[in-house]
Design a protein that fits this description.
disordered C terminus, 7 helices, alpha/beta, about 200 residues, two-stranded antiparallel ribbon, 4-stranded mixed beta sheet, 8 strands
Length: about 200
């Protein structure tokens, strides 16, 4: 148990939307270690499968556009049309990397006089941390996470605390992020980490 609580408040009404238990340093370190291990396994997934997951993410974002946009509106006061546009832009980004990711990440053969065969082969970097602002709570995350995940990297998110719900909902509903079985999505906020079960 933590004595840190992350409170998300509707800026238009001042009403409490949610309160999520925060994490202390020990839980954060344990989560980073697990994320590092998971990122090493993710790097072994073939790029075609990673790209296919990005395509599934695009479909999931569109299927849940209304719910995600409503949460963005409630948490940060963005107009509904702009929030819906943010979700659509995220879906378009997922589609782009689903189509282009395998080509972008393909080995590039190069001519070298001193060698019989040479090539450049992109490789995953490992676990990548993103520190995100509040103003585009879904788009900012997706424009970082989608290409990072398609490239075979793991992703760890520290989102602004006032959009905790947007971050957790986007991840929880994403088949690209979730994988099989019950999982948990972890997100570090300015005051700790939030932990939410995935459906």
């Amino acid at each position: 148990m933590s004595d840190i609580t992350i409170k998300v408040v509707n800026p238009a009404t001042g009403r409490l939307i949610s309160a999520v238990e925060g994490w202390g340093a020990e839980r954060v370190e344990a989560a980073v270690a697990r994320a590092h291990t998971a990122s090493r396994a993710w790097a072994l997934v073939p790029v075609a499968e990673r790209a296919a997951r990005a395509a599934r993410l695009a479909r999931a974002l569109r299927e849940r556009q209304g719910a995600l946009a409503s949460l963005v509106v409630a948490e940060m006061g963005k107009p509904v049309r702009e929030a819906e546009g943010e979700i659509e832009k995220s879906a378009l980004t997922a589609e782009y990397y689903a189509r282009q990711g395998p080509t972008i990440l393909a080995d590039q053969h190069i001519e070298v006089d001193a060698a019989e065969a040479a090539w450049v082969s992109p490789e995953p970097l490992g676990l990548v941390l993103a520190v995100m602002p509040w103003n585009f709570p879904v788009w900012q995350v997706m424009r970082f996470a989608i290409p990072s995940l398609v490239a075979g990297n793991g992703v760890l998110l520290k989102h602004a605390p006032n959009v905790t719900g947007s971050a957790l909902r986007a991840a929880a509903k994403s088949p690209a992020v979730r994988g099989g079985g019950r999982s948990r999505w972890r997100m570090r906020s300015a005051r700790g980490c939030a932990d939410a079960p995935l459906p």
